[in-house]
Amino acid sequence: MEDFRKKDVLSEEILYLGTEPKKKKPQKNYSQEVLRKMDKRAARARKFFRFIKVSIATVIAAFFAILFLMPIVLTISNSFMASSEIASNYGTVFATNSNGGKVYISEKVNLKFIPDMVSFSQYSTVLFKSPEYLLKFWNSVILVGPIVLFQLIVATLASYGFARYTGKIRAIIFFSYVILMLMPYQVTLVPNYLVSSWLKILDTYWAIWLPGIFSPFAVFLLTKFMKRIPESMIEAAQIDGAGEWQIYRRICLPLCKGAICSAAILVFIDYWNMVEQPLILLADGEKHPLSVFLSKINSGEVGLAFAVATIYMVPTLLVFLYGEEYLVDGITYQGGVKG
Amino acid sequence: MDKKVKLSKANTNSEETVKKVKPPKRNSKRFRKLKFKSGLFIAPSFLGVMTFFLIPFCVIIYYSVLDNPISANYVGFENFKNVAKNEAFMTAVKNTATFSAIAVPLAVVLSLILAMVLDLNIPFRSQFRTFFLSPMMVPVASIVLIWQVLFHNNGAVNDVIMKFGVDRIDWFKSDQAIIVIVILFLWKNLGYNMILFMAALASIPKDILEVARLESATPLQTFFYVKTRYLSSTVLFVTIMSLISSFKIFREIYLLTTDYPYPTLYMLQHYMNNKFKKLDYQALSAGAIMMSIVMVLIIGLLFIVEERFGKDVEG
Amino acid sequence: MFHKKKWFITGMALALSLGLTACTSKGTDGSDVDSKSGKAAVEEIVPEFTYVAKFSSLSEDMGNLENMVISGEYVYAMKYDFNAETNSDSSSVVKYQLNNGKFENPEKIIEFGNNGYVLNFCVDEAGNVYYVSRISPDAPGEGATEEQMNAYYESMEQNSKYHLIKIDAQGNQVYDVDFTNETKGRDYFYTNQITADEKGRVFAIVGGEGIWTFDENGNKSGEITVSQNGYVHSMGIGKDKKCYVSYVQYGNEGATTTFAELDYDGKKLGKSYANYPSGNGSSSFTKGIESDILCYDGTGVYEYSMEKEEAQKLLSWLDCDVNGDQVSAVIPTADGKIYAITRDWNANETNLVELSKMKTEDVIKRETIKVGTIYQDSSLNTKIIEFNKSNDKYRITVKTYMDENDWSEKSYQDAIANLTNDILSGNGPDILDLSNLDVNNLAKKGVLEDLMPYLEKSTRLNKSDFFERILDVATINGSLVYLPSTFTLSTLAAKTSLVGDKMGWTLEDMMKLQEAYPKAELLQGATKDLIMQMMLMLDKEAFIDAEKNECHFDSQQFKNLLKFANKFPKEYDYSNGYQLPPLLLKDNRLLLSDANIYSFEEVQSTLAYFSGDQVTFIGYPNSKGGNGCIMMPNEQYGINAKSEHKDAAWAFLEDVIDSETDDNRYYGFGFSTMKSRYEKQKAKALDVKPMTDENGEVITDENGNPVYEGVGGGYTMVGDNGEEWNYVYKPVTEEDCAIVEKLLAGATVIDVSMDEELGKIITEEAQAYFDGAKSLDDVANVIQNRANLYLKENN
């Protein structure tokens, strides 16, 4: 990817040197030399302003970045605290009183960023002593993996179909996809339960996989990108004798890599955090994913909350890092000539 | 270097690089073949959506006209009337609408601004990008903990404002509660929106920008007349995504406040959740259908606006 | 850069997954590591085989068998007999032959008379019997003074002798070792269990400590310590003739059980085996026949393979109609059968259960009825087992919705959500245990079947026999939703001089009483939270107008309540020790006493606390003008309106209600809801005669009070500061019964759900006020807002 920025700066200079800017002060009759010097100073001034602009922007960005990062940093640093330290700092936040309501936090509670004493006890408990967490972790992976993979497959096919031909019916179907996508889970939970029990897949992973695989979310995301592929390229391929499937595989998929990655990341995050569906559709507690488990942290286990959260974040982080390049570079509009 | 190109409002056909071929005639055989084949591609998704989304939706419609999921007597529009009249429901609608009305535009605008800021070629750009995306990774439980500690009556934020002499506010139990949630929402979603906008900004064809510069347009004019066109479909996209996220924020609110929060935080989904617990499934369904109707209207509107406004750009 | 990053990430991901897989895999060595979580990977058998039970009761004289061990074709057991006539006891080990499900040819191997006890015994493969005995000095005879008796008891431990004795298969004693020296210095020495390996070395679990080892000659050779936070549960010999132990440890997740080999030479626990079914710390094991180990707990029997470190569930007690809580020993026999001994403490019956393995398809199937309950209820299980045993057409199964490993609020909410879902989708249970559910709501939705027609048609129960009040309370929206068989009452009592003689009062009255006696305690153990909860649970009408669907938590009245509750301590101050209520009541240092009336005698008890002053059962404050008494039905079972087995479900309910309410049965507790039986209970209570000895003279206890049959003479309460109060039992009078009837006539039932939700809101918000962080008005406003929201949502 060329960096147009640099080019612009250069061309700006060229432009300014070459053409007449609108609001220019009336010039006296300077010599060429003096003119050039004045312009150079002006250019430097503009560079200086640009520098200020960039610095301010950087500061703003940095400010926001720190704000955004804070919770993650907190989670990770707290995961290195000894369990007693955590309980004394945050115990009251998670405590419940006798009738199950929240306990009022009566002292000042502050977020601690730096542990008084770095200890790996949380990690050792989670990783070595209690295989439950890890079991749930694998449950999460087993649940989410197939959903991401197959939803993308189904969705790329569908969005190709939508992008290739737009008729009235298609538009209505697409529109309904969007609407169905927006339904909150409380609404669809009981019907999903019913459908699952009709299909006899209750209490198996299929009850979660199937609705996940066919979710219209990725279709929505990908159709937009598929539509951008110019007809010319497709025409060209057809002239070369490619069938629809070839076009799909050879042209659309590679071009949409970025979007696919982006969709994968979003779907992953969505389902990685899913809590209510496993709770209702999977009666067997052994099959529950980590997200359900994490949401049940009570005051007895606050100490482990952060380590578990960190471990929980790691796959997401990996997925992110892996896909980030694709994410940004690939979403960009590809000019037609580059086909 | 005198390019005599008029900077007109709807002028993109000067793009010589993109060859626009007229779509084939509607009745041609090739066309029908295309229709069929592309239909095949949609088939698996369509079947799945039918089974797992459409049929449940029909089930909901079915339930919404019963008096009660157990006795199953038909009552027509009774439920809709009752739910619409219900004060709690109206509160929920008002809150949800207010929240979305504040949060979604803010999300779009702020993320656009952030994208433009990052666009200025500041150092560490890609690192910033990663940082901004990071909130998406944090599990809900940790977020809830942190927000509680911050905004509790005895929490950190109150600490700070008390130093400025302002009375402390019990954030979650006051009319200002919505601010906390909006902040939470923005924190979570700005990152991704920003990336989308950055990509969109990067994809504006350079030639047009150059032309604008040549025409001595101020940055502001450039923005409003040129960039918006290219960004419009992204704006629609980001809006819908933010709308979806604004519903998902329910989970955090629920964990922060339990079933019956202070009325300013009481969302549609609280209503639905509670109705589910009480076996009032018919009210839940009626509410859901009314919500979908509103959704249809809003999104339909957005689609139309996008059609009109950005039509000439993308194609 | 891009590619390097990609590989880096892939590498990390692989490393992470490998690492995590390694951690998740099973098996650790050594005894210091905490055991794996108790939720072992137990495979549920896909029933190709089921176990079918045959019951036979063991004869009277076999009633006191304990610690059964099977060796070869013989069963050995410890027996303890008490002969009331001669006032003598005997402790022995008896050997039986197990033939076709019968214990035959008893042979006493060891017998001790008075003051000699067999504490424990075990049998090894060769038929050698080892046992630990304790011999105590003789008690002083008749006519001994109290001092002498006390001295005897106190010195008994010091003067007892402990022996380890081995007898071979022919009955000859091999050794008899006195190891009393080893036990010195303890208050009380006992062994829970002993076992011996093939070399004749003995291991003994010493109560409160670890495991002692004894060598081939019976001399103590060492001790094995087990971890701090737990205890050794049981020991035994495995199929490979080595000794094994299961010990329980308490950790964050509750009790976990580890199964390990006993290492005699190393004087430590040897290899431990993973995935042992822990039964939440209560499983016992015995040597298996086909499998290495057979373990059992309150839920079922499992086969455990040490080689594969896997457990397989063989059967569940409930499915075999056996009450798992009553199982005291399990013995597998070579013919593939499993015998279990069950002891019903209340009915004083011992049964031998013969479980034979049959092909599932051969077993006659009965129609299944499902009972849904939130928490596991052992009395319900008992009733179900009885029904299943006696009914050949129907079989009842139970589904417990609560996750027994997680007692948090969220877990409870999830259980309710699951139950709701089941009901909504038509998969609901046929019978619902309503005791933790929102009965009002379920009734309104038509979930519950109207039981009235069934009651009217019933041949065993008579509608007019039930108390009207009971039927009233259980009827919602015109249909009878549940039918309890017994009930208890709960109310408050105070001196008539303080509160007048009318039952029932309001919150204001109560507050005025406290103001009149500011230094006195209103209720023992009252804290801010308790008062708030009590008021809200019981008197919500004060603040909620049900008709207009409005609430008034911002009213002055509610604020007064908050202020009032604030006067109580946050937590009860037990630093002064437990003070005796009767003494406090007398001095007006305590104003109210709670009265939980589950039998007629309780009325007496409550009255007695007031040491003769006139008492009024003033009740919990309420604004409806009622008498403030709460009625708590003991069973609340409803039938699902969508059930397909309603008649069968009703048959079960009839069984439950119709069962004779005997004082001995712990689950038939309380007053009967049927007038005929209530009268019988009343008659029985009134008809108590003092015990007389052979000469017809009244027996008195140490205080000179007559001893009444089945009850005793009285008791003495001793407070932490040494004060005493004597309770003298007086027989029940007609007035007492009248009080019960009066209370019942005006009693109400607690509305579970509304109170729960509102209670949560109010206590949560009130805490801010109690802690002084927010003002009264602020808090009242917030409560008003939230409660209002709740009401509006549910109009």
Key traits:
heterotrimer; A: mainly alpha; MetI-like fold; 2 domains; disordered N terminus; disordered C terminus; B: 315 residues; mainly alpha
Chain-wise SSE layout:
The complex is a heterotrimer of chains A (339), B (315) and C (795).
Chain A (H helix, E strand, L loop, with lengths): L3 H15 L13 H47 L4 H12 L26 H9 L1 H34 L3 H14 L3 H14 L7 H8 L3 H11 L3 H9 L4 H12 L1 H16 L3 H6 L8 H6 L6 H30 L8
Helix pairs in contact in A: 4-5, 4-15, 5-8, 5-9, 5-12, 9-12, 12-15
Chain B lengths: L28 H36 L13 H8 L1 H33 L5 H9 L6 H12 L4 H8 L13 H26 L3 H9 L4 H30 L1 H8 L10 H10 L3 H34 L1
Chain C lengths: L1 H23 L17 E2 L5 E9 L7 E7 L2 E10 L4 E12 L2 E11 L3 E8 L5 E7 L10 H14 L1 E7 L5 E6 L1 H4 L7 E6 L5 E5 L4 E4 L5 E5 L5 E8 L5 E9 L2 E10 L4 E6 L10 E4 L5 E4 L3 E6 L4 E7 L10 E6 L5 E7 L4 E11 L7 E7 L4 H13 L3 E7 L8 H16 L6 E3 L5 H6 L7 H6 L10 H6 L1 E2 L2 E2 L5 E10 H4 L7 H10 L11 H11 L5 E2 L4 E2 L4 H11 L14 H6 L6 E5 L2 H10 L5 E2 L13 E4 L3 E3 L6 H13 L12 E2 L2 H12 L27 E5 L5 E5 L5 H12 L6 H19 L5 H18 L2
Parallel strand pairs in C: 1-22, 26-27, 26-28
Antiparallel strand pairs in C: 2-25, 3-4, 4-5, 5-6, 7-8, 8-9, 9-10, 11-12, 12-13, 13-14, 15-16, 16-17, 17-18, 19-20, 20-21, 21-22, 23-24, 24-25, 28-37, 29-30, 31-34, 31-35, 31-36, 31-38, 32-33, 39-40
Helix pairs in contact in C: 11-12, 11-18, 14-17, 18-19
Q: DSSP strand (E) fraction of chain A? A: under 5%
Low-confidence stretches of chain A: 1-24, 331-339
**Average pLDDT figure of chain A:** 74
**Superfamily (CATH H level) name of the largest domain in chain A:** MetI-like
Question: Describe the biggest sheet of chain B?
Answer: none
> At the fourth CATH level, what is the homologous superfamily of the largest domain in chain B?
MetI-like
CATH fold-level name of the largest domain in chain A = MetI-like fold
User: What is the alpha-carbon Rg of chain A in Å?
Assistant: 28 Å
Task: Return the CATH class of the largest domain in chain A.
Answer: Mainly Alpha
The strand count of chain A comes to 0
Order of helices and strands of chain A: HHHHHHHHHHHHHHH
Categorize the overall geometry of chain B.
Answer: flat
Cα radius of gyration of chain B in angstroms: 25 Å
Total domain modules of chain A: 2
The portion of residues forming beta strands of chain B comes to under 5%
Quaternary form: heterotrimer
What share of residues of chain A is helical? over 70%
Tally of separate domains of chain B: 2
